[in-house]
Write a structure and sequence with these properties.
This protein is of the alpha/beta class and about 300 residues long. It is built from ten helices and ten strands. It folds into two domains: about 130 residues, Response regulator (Rossmann fold, 3-Layer(aba) Sandwich); about 150 residues, Reverse transcriptase/Diguanylate cyclase domain (Alpha-Beta Plaits, 2-Layer Sandwich), CATH 3.30.70.270. α7 crosses α8. The protein binds magnesium ion. Its EC number is 2.7.7.65.
Amino acid sequence: MTREPPKPLILIVDDTPTNIQVLAENLIKDYRIKVAASGEDALRVIASQDLPDLILLDVMMPDIDGYEVCRRLKNSPHTNAIPIIFVTALNEAANEEFGLNLGAMDYITKPFYLPVVKARIRNHIRLKQTTDMLESMAWIDGLTGIPNRRRFDQMLEVEWKRAQRNRLPLGIIMVDIDHFKEYNDCHGHGEGDVCLKQVAAMFAATVNRPGDLVARYGGEEFVILMPETDTDGTRQLADQLRHRIESMQIPHTHSSASRWVTISLGYASLIPQANQASSALLDEADSMLYQAKSLGRNRAFGYCLG
Ligand SMILES: [Mg+2]
């Protein structure tokens, strides 16, 4: 028995009940609808239930306004892919620019013409569905053009088994851009994306031995997999990456680590034991990354596991 896929879910956020009503009445035929009457309400609904496929977001609301709701959603890796359309009476170009820079997909001003609103919603939902599908199939991260986490997970298993079989070390480096949330907050998400691309391009140019893999692990996290590389070799590459990113001198006005965009790195290398899972290597690098951050960021940290 085949079942129809569920209709896309739209969350309508507005503090004026009649605004919600007009939109809901016109969308209910084609979509599942959820509503929220305030910013807090919206964040609670999103945190506690299925993620919406699209959010129609009023700007002017008491307490947490629409801009702030957008900022928070875009700052969380869990919610940052949800397309947001601002629906607002603020009709100045500067408001629109501000909203789009926060990462919103689109900006519709009230009073609106319903057929246009519906057409735009349909287009954005279609784009979201296509992007979701391509990302689930692809090995390449859409923003940076380097391999994605899916590809990394797959290669980690391949290389782990190979290292196990041949009793050779497997090296790994986990990388985090320092204070990236603050970078997005003060430079805007558009600039944040440019920064991610620049950092990824530098990684890709630096990690160039055959067999090595650099991937975007998620958000501002990257990971590098280095077959047949001991702790010393792993550390050398980690130090080189740290130095090169700092030398790019991408201005970062809100970082405690530096005036420039910098990275923290945790590295590890081990020879896999029989029956040992690859998560041992990931966990080790992750805890080394945590140490690097605790020590003040803009540094590489790791030690020999013997
Ligand atoms: Mg309002």
